[in-house]
Structure formats: structure tokens, C-alpha cells
Amino acid sequence: xxxxxSQQRSKRSQSSSKNRPTRSSRxxxxxxxxxxxxxxxxxxxxxxxxPPLPKFRLLLVWVVLVxxxxxxxxxxxxxxxxxxxxxxxxxxSQQTVNIRPYVPRRSITDSEGNILATDRLEYILYVHxxxxxxxxxxxxxxxxxxxxxxTPQELxxxxxxxxxxxxxxxxxxxxxxxxIKRLGLDGVEVDQTYVRFYPQEKMMADVVGFVxxxxxxxxxxELAQEKLLKRNLQSLYVQRTALGAxxxxxxxxxxxxxxxxxxxxxxxxxxxxxVRAALQRQIQKxxxxxxxxxxxDATDGSILxxxxxxxxxxNSFYRSNIELLKNWTVxxxxxxxxxxxxxxxxxxxxxxxxQPNTVIHDSGLVKVDGWPxxxxxxxxxxxxxxAEILQTSSNVAMVHMMRRLKKExxxxxxxxxxxxxxxxxxxxxxxxxxxxxxxxxxxxxxxVATASFGQGFALTPMKLVQxxxxxxxxxxxxTPHLVKGLVxxxxxxHWQPNYPSKQIIAPxxxxxxxxxxxxxxxxxxxESAKTQGYRIGGKTGTAxxxxxxxxxxxxxxxxxxxxxxxxxxxRYVVLVVVDEPKGGNTYGSTVAAPVAKxxxxxxxxxxxxxPAK
Length: 613
Fold this sequence. Notes:
Structural class: alpha+beta
CATH class of the domain at 271-607: Alpha Beta
CATH topology of the domain at 271-607: Beta-lactamase
Shape: elongated
CATH superfamily of the domain at 271-607: DD-peptidase/beta-lactamase superfamily
Largest sheet: 7 strands, mixed
Number of strands: 22
Helix content: 25-40%
Radius of gyration: 48 Å
């Protein structure tokens, strides 16, 4: 056992001696005891040195860096200079929001401040059957219990029209709208909007007109003054936060400036009521087709009343006959007949071919180009002066009078009256009058003859009022108008349109004609228009009605009466026209003149016109 242990130790010593380096293979130890490492052993244990970079790689890096810098510079130039405005617009669109707040149309008032048209809140009931979670019968029963004029069966029939967006009821009161909302029915929607409302209903329809469901004017002042009635407020660009909230400090300070201004008209509601009532009674009495009354202040052309019967309700215009939606006093032509005779007298006086005391013989018949012309009475009046010609409304005497003018001169004077031009009234649909060409007028003597008593040419009732206004105001052709201007809630006038006028008749001539017209009311065919204590000038007219294809319609006529008051200081013109009255005793003196008297009585009372001294 001892031998085996000594043998193992001997083997281990031999093995270690084999692996131990010999002294000859060891490096000598320096004197300071620190051994130097050979280069080989050092490279083996550390990182190897990098070889120097080639010049090509350095150049490549430099090119890349310079190219990047140039690219950045070019991009900066593009962003800051070339695309600056485009990017600014994009930034603004992201940072701001375009809003169009609801802005109601301007209200319309009469001359006394009474509201004629305004915007009001309306509730509309819509149903969407595709969204119903209950049966149509259940929904119909619940809605009919709130809606007065809707039965369940009617509602079910409406539900079956289409799947969504069915309007059931308009003009709902707020209380009814709230009841419907509380039902909580799916597919039932109460929409809130603003609609145009006309509190005077039919009373001012001829003047104001109406707007459609798209809030666009379709007749009257609503159409003619569309730009004036729409407010100036346009789209607003306001700033918003990142979450989309609008910043209050970005709202313009004058956001609601002038929103309370209203369009004030020249018409007087009190006079309008009196006029319409008088006209309605006369139309019913004579079973007439239609009628119209115009009252104008001749000093400036202000229309104080404009009535046409029959008319419509602008709150439910869609139920009316489309013919009623136009104002025929500016859109329809007619032959004025004897109401034009005072105008012809003024032309003859100004031409110097007659004087107020000139006497003309009326035999009761005159032939022109083979055509017989008679008086309405079928009788002659003998030798009569100018006043008596108007009093008896002599056609024969008028033919003799206007023959004294040369045809070319007469035609030029008619042209100077602007018969073939519009009056310029601020209403839509006005048409021009019709006067035959100078060649036709001067070629045939019959044209002069018929024109002398108001036939053979055509004009609108508004044009006739404008011409008589020139007699009342000293010879000026003023522009008839309805818009007075823009006023605030206190009635202060902030803007007023400018209406042109021109002199067409000498002042002394116009006053002479008005005084001649006074004799018609005092002694002639206009006596039914006389008002005790007041000097009133007038002229009746009973004209044949022209047919659509030429000639005149049998048993159809237009009766009219035009008056000027007060004669001592002429200012107001009243025209009454009644179309196709039925019966035997239907003339301007019996149909139109009585209406004019009632209108003038109301005018005298409202305007405080004093009686003549």
C-alpha cells in the first residue's frame, strides 16, 4: 500500500514537470522585476489598429453631408417662400372654423311702424318610418292625440309614402312641440326653424309679397328688395382650440351691428284697410272680375296705399291661384280711356293750340279715315269750352282739339311722357307701356283720333297715376315708390333711397288742368266723388277692353276714376280701376267714383287735410 502511494506521487510529479517550462525557454527577468511584453503577445490580447480610410470614402461622406445641407436649404426655401401662402391658408383652415350664423331677414313695417313681415320661430314635425320601433298604428294614435286635425288613419297613409323625412305638420306651437318630444318615439323628429310671418295676412299682400320655403322672395317688396332685406353679415372665420372650441376673443366686435334695422314702407296700414273695404264692397256689388286702388303722394311719388282685389294670404301662398300672386297694377296693360283726356289737354295747352276758354263744336259724330267716332252718350254737346269737354267727356271735341297739333308734334309730346317706359317703382314684374311707332302714328289720322280720347295705346294703372302726379305737383314726373328707407326700432331713418324725377309739363299748365278737372267733380260726371267743403279734381273713364288678338271684347269694359286733391294745393292722386263690372249702369261715374270718394274721405281724415277756405 505504501508503494502504491509513492508510485502515484511519482506519476503526478512527472506529469507536472512535462508541462512546466524549462528555464531555458523563459525570458530573462529584468532587474526592476517587471517583464517586458513582446509585441506579439500584446497584439494577441488587445484590439487591432484600424487601417487609414481611403480618400474615396472621405469624399463620399463629404458629398452626402453637403447634399443633405443643400436639400434642407432648398426645402426651407420652398416652405418659407414658395409655398408660404398655401401653407398659411392650410394652417388657418386648421386653426379657424367658418360659421354662418342664422341671420333673419329684415322686418318690414308700414309708415307708422306696424309690422308687415317678420321672421318667427316655427316647429315642424317629421317622421322617419324606417326608424320606428313601434307599429305604425301605435305611433299614429299617439301623434293624433296631440295633433288636432290629424286622424290615425291619415297619419298611417302619410307614413307609407316613403321611408324617411315625411313632413307631417308645420307651424306647430312650442307647447305642442314639447308634448311630441316627451312621447319619446323613435323616428319622430320635431325640427326648429325660422319662417317668414305676415301678421296682416291679406291686407298688405299686394305690396309686401311673400317668400317661399327656401326663404327666397317671390313677389312684392320681398322679391324686388331682396338685397335690402337680407342683412350684410357674411361668413365668419373664428379661431378655435385644438379640441374645436371657439375662442370668444376671435369673434368680431360688430357681429350684430345694425341687425335691428327694418325696411320701412311708405304705405299707411290705416288707409289700406279703408281702401280695401271700399273696393271689396263695390266689386261684390257689380260682380266685377277684379279691381285696384292706388293712392300716391305726388310731391315725391310715395305710394300711401296699393290695393288689388282679389288677393292672397302670403302665409299660405301655395294655396292661392297663381294669377293672384302678381300685382296687376304694374304688370298688366290697359287702355286708359277718358282718364287720359286731362293729360291730352295739358299737351294741347303747352303746345299753345288751345286756351282754357277755347270753344270747340261737338256735333256728336266725326269720321276719321272712314271710321265713325261718337260720344258715349250718342249725342252732341254743341259749342263747348275745355272745361265742358272734360265735364261731358266728349270724344268728338277731343278729336277736334288734338287735330290742331301736327301729328309729329303730338307723337313727340306723347313720347316725352315716357308712356313706353317703366315708372321705376320698386315692385317686380313691371311692364312698359305700348305706343305705336311714329311711322304708323303719323301715317294714319285714326291713330291721332283714338289717342285723343285715351285709346289705341296701352299703359299700366301705375303709369297713369305717375302722369296725373305730374299734373298735381307742378309738372314733375316723379318715381312711384314703396320703400321709405331703413329705420331702427325707434323709427330713426338711417338710409333712404334716391328716386329720380324730371320736369315734363310747365307748372302753370299743370295747375290749370287741375282746376279744369275740378269742374268735372262739381258739375260733370264725377259728382259722385264730391266731398262737401273740399276742392277735388277728377275725371271718369269707361273704356272698351282690348282683346288678346286685336279689336275689342264685346260687353267688356274697364271703369275708372282718377282724382287730385286738394285743388288749391294739389298733392294726392287717387286712382280707382274696376275691371269688367256686370250690369247695365256700369260706368266710371257709377262704379269707380263712389269708391274714390270713400278713399278720399279716409285720406282727408288720416292726413288732417283742412277744408278749402
